Each structure stands twice: as C-alpha cells, then as structure tokens.
Amino acid sequence: MVLKWDAKLETGLDLIDDQHRELYRLVSLILDPGEETKIEDTIKFLEDYVVRHFNDEEALQVTSRYPGLPEHKEIHAGFIRTFIDLKTKLALAESAEEREIAILALNGAAVDWLGNHIMGHDRHFAEWFKDPHEWLDLEVLSVSPEDQG
What we know:
The chain is mainly alpha-helical. It has helices spanning about 15-30, 35-65, 70-90, 95-130, 140, 145-149.
C-alpha cells in the first residue's frame, strides 16, 4: 500500500505543504515491505523530520500570533509521545509478528494523524496565517508622512 498525497490536503502555505508531502512519502516507505534496516532508518528519519516540521510550523504560529498555538503545540507533543511509544514497541518486539504489529500500529497512527491533523488543525492555522489583517501589527507596517520625505 502506498500513501498518496492529495491536493485536498494542501494548506496554501508552501513550506508546510512541502513538508507534509515529505511526511507522506516517509510514511509510505514504512508501509512498503522491505529490509528491516530500511524501516528502522525510515523511522529515525521520520522522527527527525517530524520534529523539524513541528518546529517550523510552530515558528510560523509564533510569528503570526496564532491564538491556537498552545493547543497546537500540545497536539504536536501528543503525536511525538505516541510516535516514541510505538517506536519503542517496535524496538522491543521479539518476534516477526510483534514487529509487524508494531509497524502497522505506527503506520496507522501516522496515517490517521496526518490526515486528521492536516485537514483540521493545520488548515485552520493556514487560514489564520493567510489573512494578515488578523495578525499583522499595522502600526509597525505603516509609514508616517515624515518617513515618506
């Protein structure tokens, strides 16, 4: 099974959309049966990428004074906790069956989270971000007649 990016998931924020596409690609690699080291390497890369993506997304939220930032950060932290828990179960799996169950659980959590999070929370933030009069400090951006000189 290959996880396909769908244009319906786009937020209209290029950085975020590019990172979401890459996250989809990485989760697809976990789905693709292959060598164990490939799965382990992909999971490590996915973990690092998720952290980077969350940091980038939250930085945009800070910049735009997004009122949903505290909730959004907690949602991100919750996903990271789930991801680490499932990654640990995979590392501790003692049989091929336990590994397969852990991989499927990890993948299921990632697929579910990606779709629901992007379509809900990220899309809400993107709408906030794309409407600058919601958050820009117009006093800072305005030019006084003296400055126009």
